Amino acid sequence: MLENQPVATICRICKENCGILVSENGDSLKISGNPRHPISKGFLCFKGKNFGDVHHSPHRLRSPMLKNGSKWVNISYKEAINVLAEKFDRSKAKFGPESVAFYKGESLKHQEITHYMGHLASGFGSPNYISVGSLCHYAMVLGHSLTYGGMPKPDFERIKGVITWGANPVNSSPLLFSSLKRALSQGTKMVVVDPARTRTAELADIHLPIMPGSDGFLALALIKHAVEEERLDPPDELSVGWNTLSQMVRDLSYDHLLRNTGIDGGLFDKAVSLIFENRPGWVLTGLGLELQPVGVQAIRAVACLQSILDPLNRPFPVSAGLKSLPGFDGYPTMPRAIGAEQAPLYVQMKGEAQGMFVPRAILDNDPYPLRAMLVVGGNPLSTFPAYSKQYRAMQGLDFLAVHDLFMTQTAQLADLVLPASDHLDNLELHDYGQAGKPYLGLIKPAVSSPIGWPAWKLLFNLAGRLGLERFFPWWDNRDAIAYRLSDCTIKLEDLENSPAAVLAYQPGSVPTERWCTPGGKVHYRSEKMEAFGYPGLPDPKSLDLPFSTDSEFPLWLSTGDRILAYQHSQFRQIPTYRRQAPEPFVDVHPDAAAKLDIADGDPVFVITRYGRIEIRVSLSDQVRGDCIRITHGWEEANANTLTGLEHFDPISGFPWLRALPAKLEKKDG
Ligand SMILES: Nc1nc2c(c(=O)[nH]1)N[C@H]1C(S)=C(S)[C@@H](COP(=O)(O)OP(=O)(O)OC[C@H]3O[C@@H](n4cnc5c(=O)[nH]c(N)nc54)[C@H](O)[C@@H]3O)O[C@H]1N2
Ligand SMILES: Nc1nc2c(c(=O)[nH]1)N[C@H]1C(S)=C(S)[C@@H](COP(=O)(O)OP(=O)(O)OC[C@H]3O[C@@H](n4cnc5c(=O)[nH]c(N)nc54)[C@H](O)[C@@H]3O)O[C@H]1N2
Ligand code: SF4
Ligand SMILES: [Mo]
């Protein structure tokens, strides 16, 4: 059989969103990198290349199914939408519109469907649109934005040094990593701050194997050096609170700061020389920082340092200027969103509910009953903390609907499952502006075997059935995209005809004189945080974890470190992917294992204050002797059994998934 002409589209498995070429040959799909894509330039990783096996997996959901007792009954999509609308309307009549939540997971990225779902929730009258932003990336956005108005950009042409801080781009960001590797080969220096000697750390000039959870102290020690030794003072007219911050670090001793981090003074001195001799510097911050109960303050301290290492890295908003969705002039005020009490700054800045507080709304009616939920493109039962509580909460709902490619753990608990189409069988607009790059892209249908519905189709139809068509006056995303592009210079047809499905736009004017905060200054002391009752400086008190390791829980556990072949809980059922990492392990240092008389491959219990799982040991000298590490997304050993909801970052609401006190027990011991 002849291969079809390849279709240029975009991979959206991960946030790199590489350009791909997809061609069909009977039942098999060939996916290759698109060399004409201006950002990825032909790059393709293992996950993207093999996605044809996901598309054609025999495990794909193919029909909507309604649960009848313990049995699934196939129904039509039309019937499914009717059921969904009826259940939502019933919940609204009985408990108010806020009793219905709309959740969007990571697979759909922070793009088009985010806007559609938030809009639908508002149209319905519910403040409870919730996204995976509740535990992904937004704590970082908060920390950096509150300091200087956005996320710092990796300008590899200009920078001389990189600090990779709590991130492992070798596994998590393959495309970014390829640029980083190139920069390193051309002389850029790198320090990695990570308790584990990851593959990224192995490539560093200096690896600082920091004590988990102590990052803010290291950032303060580096700022102290900048103040006292380098005498780097930002200009007064461009900063708020510099004097207060610099006085604070002068009053703290290196001894005190470094003791917290466990980093030896000699190694610190070497890192300091490398970092300050190789300015301008860029700091890549990752989940190791944000999934902590002191995450935003630690990120704030790092952000203060970033502004000193490169005063010209002034992030500014890049956006294609898509037209806002119709139906509202401004979104109406509504009952308080879930989490508004516990994490008000997150809720205000993100304009969403904070998903960490969903279980207590369902189980304790706090702040009011949450009774029905639609989950689109996420598997929160696996990926949110406190597995058993999430399980009880989801079972406690009057109605749960899940839109997904597969019968996930979350879908198994649902009353209604709706088969989704994947990104090879979809039409979606993608603004790379969110990643700071002024390009618009189009995800295009590239296969002739449609399975399921795309999220937009589900949402448009649901809106229609709920009597909310004025918010989505289209049946087809083509029309919606054309509408959203109506104020842009780029038109839908241009994107469709582009050889990379991507076109550049003008990013707007680049500010060179000032920073992108209100007032144009770097906020070393954040008045906004103070207005919300938080410390305006990342002071040592605000950097202390709620509790530390002790004789009962002597090890630091990191949950959720990335595996190259998987995206969170995805692809475990696809043999091509599974062969890359067939089973879950807890990584333990050989010395720590020897003390517990544990050998490679032994089954053990990993135990925290929140829960325990059984898992086999993999001996690894990448982890510190006082640390252990497990990946997330495994049904048979769910890392989130070990995590909880009691301790969270009071600023972002983010959960405590890294630097968690834990212990190991030998199974038969
Ligand atoms: N293959 C693959 N790639 C992915 C994903 C995936 O599931 N699979 N998920 C994507 C998503 S949604 C995200 S958000 C990104 C996340 O990508 P990253 O931010 O790079 O996150 P991780 O890969 O978990 O790396 C975090 C690092 O932090 C370290 N760490 C743990 N505790 C601490 C600490 O207390 N301090 C410091 N300094 N470091 C610590 C860990 O050892 C680990 O090496 O990955 C994306 N990329
Ligand atoms: N312990 C611990 N937990 C973590 C983390 C951690 O580091 N440690 N990391 C957290 C982070 S950063 C993130 S981002 C979250 C991710 O959490 P989730 O969003 O739950 O991530 P996935 O498991 O990838 O779930 C995505 C689902 O979308 C489905 N899907 C794929 N494509 C489509 C599509 O086109 N349409 C629809 N409707 N569905 C589709 C997939 O089949 C999959 O079931 O996990 C978080 N959980
Ligand atoms: S890095 Fe891999 S998974 Fe991510 S978008 Fe590119 S090809 Fe897809
Ligand atoms: Mo994430």
From TrEMBL:
Pfam family, one: Molydop_binding
Keyword Cell membrane part of the UniProt annotation: no
Molecular function per GO: acetylene hydratase activity; iron-sulfur cluster binding; metal ion binding; molybdopterin cofactor binding; oxidoreductase activity
PROSITE patterns with a match to the protein in the record: 4FE4S_MOW_BIS_MGD
4Fe-4S Mo/W bis-MGD-type domain ranges (all copies): 4-59
Keywords: Iron, Iron-sulfur, Metal-binding
Record family assignment: Belongs to the prokaryotic molybdopterin-containing oxidoreductase family.
Name of the protein in its database record: Molybdopterin-dependent oxidoreductase
